[in-house]
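Marked as duplicate of an earlier ticket. Keeping the data here for the record.
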Amino acid sequence: MTSMLKFSQPVPARPHERSFWIQSTDPTGPETSAPLRGNISTPIAIVGGGLTGLWTAWRILEQRPEQQLVILEADFCGSGASGRNGGQVHTWYGSLGYLRALVGKKEAIELARATADAIDEFEELQQSGEIDMDLRLDGWIRGASAKAHEGIWEGAAADLAQHGDTPYRPLDAEELKERTGSASSYEGLIEDRAGSMNPYKLARGLRKRLIEKGVTIYEGTPVEAIAPGRPARLKTPRGVVTADQVLIATNAWAGSIPEINRYMYSVDGQVIVTEPIPERLDALGWKSGASIADSQMQVLYWQRTVDGRVLLGQGSGLPIYKAKLGPKNNRNPKLVPPVVRELHRLYPSLSDVKIDYDWVGPIDIVATHIPMLGTLEQQPNVLYAVGWSGTALAQIPAVARILASRLLGIDDKWGRSKLFNQNRRTRIFPEPLRFIGANLVRLAVINRVRREIQNKRVDPITKFLVSLMPRYRAPGEVAPD
């Protein structure tokens, strides 16, 4: 008999702990729908009201406008990773090597092109007035600031050229400084058809449109457990949902499910946002809404916001023990100083600027650096999608097509995707070895990054410890580590 799936209960962020995206968009708090009270039945239940759940519902209705489904969200839609990320919009072209290793050459390029189509879809939604997400397609820039980072994208560019796809072009030091206002990088590349957005606005826009289309969304309704079977039964604090098909779309919060936890680990990402300084950014020559990243292993990502602030994030790599997310995974002041130091390194003239917002966003990671989609063992009607590794805004709309076809039982190219129920999965060490090892690797990564940025040799012990990270290197990889 299959045992019940129990979920660790999330700790919602308090209003002052919420991201800049959320606080600036909904300063008095978001509008929320009523929580579930009582017992209901539905053909499809989606657990998680973030972008994965919302986009999957959107794709379902595209194929079957009359389809009944419900979304269960523990807090409010967009409150999790969807409202906490860096707002960077770029395609999967840079991850072609990773994709090819999982699904083969043909589908890999199709999935990369699907993420480019998603960016076109964002633009259409905004221009039509259907969803305002502060989208600015001013490019995605990646720079090299050290000898160790030089030319790491060349393999990907050559690989893409074989398919006739040329999304990237090189940038020299002068153009990098002109576009970013920083002299920290001296060579790089740009994906012109990319940029930045307010991801929380996108999530809230999708929520509004889905409700208008008849989708029932229960917010303030955490799922405590799923009793498997056909149908499955989802237990919440005040009611039970009986569903023929279930999708678990809770990002890092899915780590409490043992089967998923074997292959996925979570770390904290730290983001800061300055006070508004538009005139000073103009003086630096930094006027566009491009999204920017560097090439170090502990990747930095940043943008100029619509109101002239600097938003800067970094994957801290701080591991989360037993996937138990608590208050420190909403806001952790101890993680702020290293990111502030990086801001001052990138923009020395801004060392006096005040930090107005800081928050933590848990990042769900799998070794392939490509989302892990599938059904739980012996439970073919319970699907999951995890492992976005911090790269998701243009990727989720593409993956949602796969999830929608699987939930609807549609035999099309999306439903047959090899991304679903992948054969290549790397198990992660169990606890407490995982936590101990992750902390050792984290310190090694920090040491490697520090030495590389100073153009110093990385010692063999550091290299060895870094190599223990559960991952594999795909040829032609360009997306941030």
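See parent ticket for discussion. The first strand starts at residue 5 and ends at 6.
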